[in-house]
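Work through this protein:
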Amino acid sequence: MKIGDSRPLGGVRSSSAGGERGDVAGRSVAGGGRASADSISFLGIPEAELTPKVRDALMSIMAEVERLRREMDEVRRRLKDAEDLADRDPLLPVLNRRAFLRELSRSIAYGRRYRVSAGLAYFDIDDFKRVNDTYGHAVGDTALRHLADLLSEHVRESDMVGRLGGDEFGVILEHADEKMAQRKAGALAKLIADNPLILNGVKIPLSISVGAIAFTGDDEPQAALNRADQAMYRVKHQSD
């Protein structure tokens, strides 16, 4: 190899002492690993510059880059976990109100683009204060989890369940018109009535009022939620 030749190390072929020295340098980087020699060849470092100090510096830099890559992967994972946690209700395995409204906004945008409707059901537990007063707030929390589980287990994966506050829940029913939304809401209300919470042999019935509407891309998220809320209250007052 001629002095000053800047061909990558990986391209050196020589039976001379200089060539043997270059070959040894390539094999000895980071303990003789082929990947390390390939990496330095890729970097285009001239053989004449591959002193032990240069090799050590290069391997130190490469190790630092790999460490930073692992740290970035961990940061991304933790960020994803934090985002998921921020979307969840603090008590129940469903979306919180903020996340539910965001998903409602996305569904409206989808409807605006493709001119399709979706349903929105609004649930309210009847006389939930009686449950808390009679059995205690811990049982009341269990009753809320029971209801949330029933709703989540009996809707499609594309549908969204959220807690809107207190004892009120919402369900986004994708690709549904108003009649379909009302039928599904009624079926869910019957499911909850037919499956009371049972604790220590004590049956705790839950009754809910539900209103359902359809919305399209012409709606605003809060306006659609208000219409579903009003539909629910009309049903509740009719049953009083």
